[in-house]
Amino acid sequence: MERSTEIAAELSGIAPALAELGVPGQPYRVPAGYFEQFYNSLIEKIQLGAEEPDNEIRALSPLLAGLERKNPYNVPAGYFDELSIPTPVPVRQKAPVFSLHRVRPVLRYAVAAMLTGIIATAAFFAFHKSSSDPLSALNAISDQEMANYLENHDVHWVPGTSSSPTASASYDDNDISDLLSNVSDDELEAYQPMLAQNQRTVN
Amino acid sequence: MQEQMTDTELLALFREPATKEKAFSILVKRYQERLYWHIRRMLVDHEDSNDVLQNVFIRVWNALANFREDAQLYTWLYRIATNESLSFLEQQKRKATVPLSDVESSLSNKIRADKDFDASKLEWKLQLAIQQLPEKQRLVFTLRYYDEMPYEEMSQVLETSAGALKASYHHAVKKIEDFMLNR
Asked: Which pTM value belongs to this model?
């Protein structure tokens, strides 16, 4: 099988519509005589690059080739005899280390302090949870201790009585008359037995 | 006589100082057109292609004496031509400092600027379609479609497995077909 046939068959297999269009030729053109002259221009370029400097400059510029190659510059007398170039001593400098995580130290300390505070607070509440309940703490205190405390703090209370020291209030007769002015006599009479009963319960 | 000379004989002739230039002239005349068209399809412009072709043969002149016949001479020449073309395109990209897509569209513009360009002709439309391809696919397509290069030899030129080249050619043909039929 010819290779061109093989490639045409391959193309038909991949893209039948493209193969049907036919195989377009080469649209580009080259200047007339380009390939005939190519070798001569190429070998000229190669020879120019490979030539001796004398021949090269003669080919490029006969004027420059004809000039005397005299150096116009001078150096101080004995310069090259005295020329000494000190051998550079390699200085071993420690390479600076740059952290890949550039977090400012102050910020790091602040974060650490904050975390410590959170942990300490959480631990405190976890271990002191039971004692923080005021009702359960009061149950654990005996009546005598409570009486001593109230005595020391000038609060008068006798164990076994329920009257609150803070509940005391002073009323004169006029105030009571005003308060009871809208209450009927029947209601007052009905209240008296309840009052006597309450007094018995308290005592 | 020169037409029948094999590449091995040509190399032997080149290694002799007395016949070096003669051997080189035979080699250049044998391969110049194939390499020129390979380069031209990559670079589009004749002057650019001429510069690159000259550079290719200067490299060949300098390196041919040391060429070991592990590979075929023509695949070695194609490899040099391919690398020189890619280097040229790379230099252009760096000089232009424009995005890659702009450089590729500039190649399309060069096609349109050709004095023989005719948008109604299939062969020119095909050239525009080829320029839409990524560099590697463009190379694979032109080497296969125009140079009819077997995948095994192409794999030596492009240093890619034959399987990968087949896949690349398949993708390239599909893209070109789409361009030719839909634009």
From this structure: 0.58
